């Protein structure tokens, strides 16, 4: 039976609903298609191959129905299943292994320290624009073997291409221009690497796989494009959300300052409460029955990650920040065969930023009236995050 509750998973106030269910229902239907709210049901949908990523359809709804950009998306790793998916995923998974993450920690710390050296901490700082927005693109440049001077362009390309996910159709010209620039940038970077000699970076690794016939030339471009578009914007916003959450939970923050071993758990709890990717959209490739409801073939299915992460059936006191939460496995980085390949690196970036703050700025606080956190297209985003790094007082904000 179809639920009659009015609900929109992309509404700016969607997150105000209690997590896990609405009026006792973990699955709702409306003009948008089907919304999945419960943790267990969301996990099933994210693992079920009867639901395909909807990014290609979304691109077509923006009017991008043919050409190189459409071809890239159609061939991208997120649109593949079975052997084609495994073929594209394995090289990236091998390179983004825990070994790579561990090796990148020292680089991360140097990047954070370098950015910190540029800050004027005598007054509140623009922590998003000045810190968290800069880090992921610099990490990409390190991993891809690109010069650090390319980082601003990488950050801009990632932000503009993924503006597709805002679902704002007026962004079509911006998106098209960004992908054209991205393709040209990668072609130039590959040419530079070949001229200068391949190294042990990720892009060189992909080029070598192409030279060895293990990937086609087209697949090398698809892999490189996927890596760049996903490299920066989501991690930058999530980094900001982690800092925003922790600095407003003063009791938890003071525990972290005293005991930095709590940082990984703190980051995961922030990811649970405020996931950058609040909605993961799929398409049913056949009729699927769930919870007594038939999800028709070809219809949109939106997994509300923000709701699943606050499901009281899965998480005790789901709206509270709990530094001691056990078996904490939010769906922020998805699950199943299409879980986020870069999640280990993203968590490392967040942990190192928090570690640096706890060590150097234990009294840091969010300047509330100069901070703005919003939602758009089902995604949490930092519009402005202002931090007083040397604050010595003010009201605690325990959320």
Helix coverage percent of residues? Answer: 40-55%
Amino- and carboxy-terminal Cα gap: 37 Å
Quantity of strands, as a count:
12
The unreliable regions are 393-399
How big is the Rg? 21 Å
Major beta sheet, strand line-up: 1-2-8-5-3
**Largest sheet entry:** 5 strands, mixed
The SS-based structural class is alpha+beta
Mean pLDDT: 92
Overall morphology: globular
List the total number of helices: 16
Element order, helices and strands?
EEHEHHHHEHHHHHHHHHEEEEHHEEEE
Instruction: Note the beta-strand portion.
Output: 5-15%
Offer a few descriptive terms.
about 400 residues, alpha+beta, 3-stranded antiparallel β-sheet, 16 helices, disordered C terminus
Describe the 3D structure:
Helix content is 48%, strand content 12%. It has helices at 39-47, 55-61, 68-75, 82-95, 98-118, 127-132, 135-144, 151-161, 172-196, 202-211, 217-229, 233-247, 250-258, 263-273, 305-308, 343-360, and strands at 27-30, 33-36, 51-53, 125-126, 279-284, 288-290, 293-295, 300-304, 365-366, 372-376, 379-384, 386-388. The chain has a five-stranded mixed β-sheet. A three-stranded antiparallel β-sheet has the order 4-12-9. It starts with 26 loop residues before the first strand and ends in an 11-residue tail after the last strand.
